[in-house]
Amino acid sequence: MKRKIFIGIMFFLVVSAIAKYTFSKVAIKNFLDEMYYSYNENTFSYMTSTSYDHFGFYSMTDDIRKMIPGASIEYLNEFFLEKGEKIDPLLKNGYSTLSLGYVGIYEMTQAMLGVSHTTKEGEEFALQVMNHLKDACDSWKKETGLGFGLYGTPGESLTSRFCRIDKQKFGEIENVTDRMYYTNSYHVHVTEEIDAFEKLKFESQFHDISLGGCISYVEVPDMSKNLPAVEQIINYIYHNIQYAEINTKPDVCFKCGYTGEIKLDDDMEWYCPNCGNKDKNEMQVMRRTCGYIGSNMWGKGRTQEISQRVLHL
Fold it and tell me: HSE-up of 293 (CA within 13 Å, CB side)?
């Protein structure tokens, strides 16, 4: 039965939308000014290869061609489309990306082996699965010329949805569907006791496989009085992992002026531990989700996940 369980491995394709516009001289100048590229009458005084790619998806009139230096026009001609021309050629050779996303590596390992992927046995299995997914992306990329990549999906609402669907299909399974969420990508489960450096070391090996997108983080208390420890973490991140963040809780209650951590009660409702305020309009709760620290209120699954996060320092 366990091997039939679908554990939040998600396939989705993301193809960049490509617009085609024809600009007058004035319009192209305004466009480039807004994109912070320097314009000097009939020439571009500075333009990086990145801006070439961004600008290159737009149709180009004869007037615009006259504005661009000869060396640049040869490069730009590769990207410009004629009116009505299909975008297919621009999707190949690295000019677009298609992501194979996944969530729930922890839950998958629990379902298949009954252990966390931080154990030796679980780690080997999780890495085998990850490498298999990466090999599939590499194979598709070679066959099609399209930029397939393995992507550690944040899955903000998806983590709840996949877990809910699996629970309806297979019932409540310990450490798999007995919560309201699946764990993001390859992350250590939020309830596992592990120190910051071991967590970063463990997750770093998945970064080398999940090259389409990856992030790790560590949860810390108020570090304002222990800045040397913050420096140690940053130094470790710099030398050992591709991309990682430090999470803290800079919340504010606007009713009483409290700053610190706004708490969650048993009903997963936010409240100020100082004055008891529960009015969401009178507080600011800051948590990292989807790779960014934000102050929006989250769905039940993500809120439960946030409430169960343990400190790593």
Answer: 15
Max alpha carbon distance in the chain (Å)? 69
User: Using CA atoms, how far apart are residues 7 and 163, in angstroms rounded to an integer?
Assistant: 8
Residue ranges of the chain with per-residue pLDDT less than 50: 1-60
Q: Mean pLDDT score of the chain, rounded to an integer? A: 79
Residue 267's alpha-carbon distances to 64, 106, 167, 292, in angstroms, are: 60, 26, 21, 25
Q: What's the DSSP call for residue 197?
A: H
Q: What is the pLDDT of residue 37?
A: 38
Tell me the β-bridge partners of 102.
152
- Which one, of 12, 66, 56, 15, lies nearest residue 32 by Cα? 56
Q: What tokens appear for 295 in the block?
A: 């102050």
Helical (H) or strand (E) element with 123: helix 120-144
Rounded distance, CA 176 to CA 164, Å?
Answer: 11
| Cα(274)–Cα(285) distance, integer angstroms | 14
Q: Name residues whose C-beta falls within 8 Å of residue 99's C-beta, 6 or more positions apart in sequence.
A: 12, 13, 14, 148, 149, 150, 151, 212, 213
